Amino acid sequence: MTSASVQNYLKAIYQLQENSETVTTTALAQHLDISAASATNMIKKLARLKLVRHSPYHGVELTTAGEKMALEVLRHHRLIELFLAEALDVPWELVHAEAEKIEHVISEDLEDRIANFLGDPERDPHGDPIPTKAGTVERPEYQSLLDVGAGQSAVIQRVSDQNPEHLKHFSKLGLIPDATVDVLSREPFDGPLRVRVASGREHTLDETLARAIWVTPTVEKKAYRAKSKSHV
Amino acid sequence: MTSASVQNYLKAIYQLQENSETVTTTALAQHLDISAASATNMIKKLARLKLVRHSPYHGVELTTAGEKMALEVLRHHRLIELFLAEALDVPWELVHAEAEKIEHVISEDLEDRIANFLGDPERDPHGDPIPTKAGTVERPEYQSLLDVGAGQSAVIQRVSDQNPEHLKHFSKLGLIPDATVDVLSREPFDGPLRVRVASGREHTLDETLARAIWVTPTVEKKAYRAKSKSHV
DNA sequence: TAAAAAATTTAGCCGCGACTAAATTTAGTT
DNA sequence: AACTAAATTTAGTCGCGGCTAAATTTTTTA
Q1: Radius of gyration for the alpha carbons in chain B, expressed in angstroms and rounded
Q2: Contact criterion met (CB < 8 Å) for A90 and B113
Q3: Long-range CB pairs of B26-35, under 8 A, 24+ apart, other chains included
C-alpha cells in the first residue's frame, strides 16, 4: 500500500515534468508547499522504491513504475472531479479540492464503477485528459491564450485547475472548455488581453489569467493569409 | 482538524456504547484491531481533548462533544454507503468498506450535496439510522431475530454491516431490510434457526448469523393471545 | 481471603513525514 | 579563477499513532 504522501509526490513530479524536462527539488517543494529538506527526504525514499531516478543536486525523474503510479492517481483525481460535477453538481471550482482527498482512498472497483457511470470519459471538467486504466494519456499540444494574436479566434481546450478563485472567475466569464473566444487586442510587454466570448461580452484578462487558459486557434481567413505570406 | 484516527476511535466508542453502558479498553482495542496499549494511549489523548471521560481501569465514555463528533462521522459513513449503493450500484456488502475510508475526507459541503441528492434519507442500506445534521439519531429498539419465537413472523429492520461475507450471504437469501421472515423452528441451546422468506424459500441460520439480524415482530393472532394472557 | 488470572496502564521503542539549522555542492558573477 | 549566491543535502528534532514488554490494578477463583 502506497501512502497518500507518496502518491502526492509522484503526481506532483509528473505534473512538473509536463512543463520542464527536469524537476528540481525546489520546484517540487514549492508545488507541494513543503520545505526543500522534506522534499529531499521523500525523493530519497522514492528512489529506494525505484519510483524515481535521483541525480543528486540535479533533479529527479519518474521511472516507468513511478509514472504508472502517478497516472493511476491522476486517473482517480480526474474521474472523481467529473463524477462530482456530473452526479452531484459540485461547482467547477470546488471539485479539485474535493478530488485531491478522495483520490487516495477509493478502491479499484469504485474507480471502475465511476468510469463506467461516466461512460469512460476522456476529459475532466477542466479539460485535462483522463489517463486510461492501461496507464496511457493523451498529451495534446495546446497553445496558451497568451500566444494567440489579436484578431484571431480560438477554442478553449483546457483551463488550469490550480487556482479555485481563477476558476470561479473563468466560469463567470464563460471561459470554459469548448467555448470560443475572439482575441480583440493585446497590450505589449505581457500586458492585459482583451477578449470577446460567444455571448458577445468582452473581458480583460491579465497575464496570469491568460496563461491558465489553453486553446487551439480556429482556422480563419486572417490565419490563412498569414500562412501564405510566410511561404513567399 | 481532527485526524481519521480520532474519528475512528470516537465512532468505535459510540458503537460500543450502544450495546453496553461502559466501554472497556479491551473491547475498544478488539473493535479497532489494535493493541490494548495503543487504545489506552489514544483514550488519554481523547480525554485531554475533552471528547471522552476516562475512569482509569474502569472504562471510557463519550462526552457531549465526543458524541457529537462520533455522530458526524457516522452521518458521513451512512450517507456515503447509501450514495454509493444508489448512484453507483455498489453492492451491499462493499459499501461499508468503501465508506470507511471516504467518510474521513469529504467536506461539509459535499456531505450536504449527498444528503440532498438522496432526499435527506433516514436509513442507510443496512437499515442503520442516519444521524441528522443537528447531531441527533433515532435509537429504535429492535429485537434480535434470535429472540423471535417459532411460529412468529417478523420484518427485518436492520442487518449488522460488520461482516461483508455475512452480508453477501444475507442478500443471496433475501434477508434484507423490509423483508418479512417467518420463523419456523428453533433448536434449543442457541441452536440454528429455520426461517422462510417472502419468496417461499426456507433457510437455516446459525446463532452468529441470526444475531446480526434485527427485526420487529409482526402482530398476529398468537402474539395477541400471549399479550392478553399476561394481562390476566 | 489469599493467590492466580485477566485487564489495564506505563515505559520505551519505531516508522512516517514534516520541520529548522548547518553543511555542501553548483551556478553565476566579476 | 575566485568569490558569492542559490540550490540542495545532511543532521538532528518533533508529533502522530502504532508496537512489545513490564508493571500495576482489578477480578475471579480456590
Answers
A1: 20
A2: yes
A3: B28/B60, B32/B8
How buried is residue A224: exposed, middle or buried, by Cβ count under 10 Å (0-12/13-18/19+)?
exposed
Range of the domain at A213: 143-224
Name every chain A residue with its beta carbon within 8 A of the beta carbon of B106: 98, 101-102
Q: Provide CB contacts within 8 A for B196, sequence distance 6+.
A: B181, B182, B184, B202, B203
Count of structural domains, chain B? 2
B44 CA: nearest nucleotide by C1': C9
The answer to whether A29 and A43 have CB atoms below 8 angstroms apart is: no
Residue A114 belongs to some domain of the structure: no
Per-residue pLDDT of chain B (232 residues; tens, 9 = 90+): 799 999 999 999 999 999 888 999 999 999 999 999 999 999 999 999 999 999 999 999 999 999 999 999 999 999 999 999 999 999 999 999 999 999 999 999 999 999 999 999 999 999 999 999 999 999 998 999 988 888 899 999 999 988 889 999 999 999 999 999 999 888 776 678 899 998 889 999 988 899 999 999 987 544 444 444 444 3
- Strand D reaches within 7 A of the A157 CB: no
Rounded CA-CA distance B95/B80 in Å is: 8
B136 CB below 7 A from strand D atoms: no
Nearest alpha carbon to residue A183 among A123, A228, A143, A227: A143
Does residue A138 sit within a domain?
no
Burial (Cβ within 10 Å: 0-12, 13-18, ≥19) of residue B4: middle
Amino acid A9 CA to nucleotide D10 C1' distance, rounded Å: 21
We report the CATH number of the domain holding residue A209 as: 2.30.30.90
The minimal CB distance from B114 to the residues A88, A94, A101 is found for: A88
Taking the alpha carbons of A50, A55, A60, A62 in that order, is the dihedral positive or negative?
Answer: negative
Select from A42, A62, A82 the last residue of a domain.
A62
CB contact under 8 A, B98 and A110: yes
CB < 8 Å to A98, chain B: 106-107, 110
Asked if residue A102 is part of any domain, the answer here is no
Domain at B40, CATH number? 1.10.10.10
- Tell me, yes or no, whether A105 lies in a domain: no
Q: Are B88 and A110 within 8 A, CB to CB?
A: yes
Q: Residue B68: exposed, middle, or buried by beta-carbon count in 10 A (0-12, 13-18, 19+)? A: middle
Contact yes or no for B105 and A101 at CB 8 A: yes
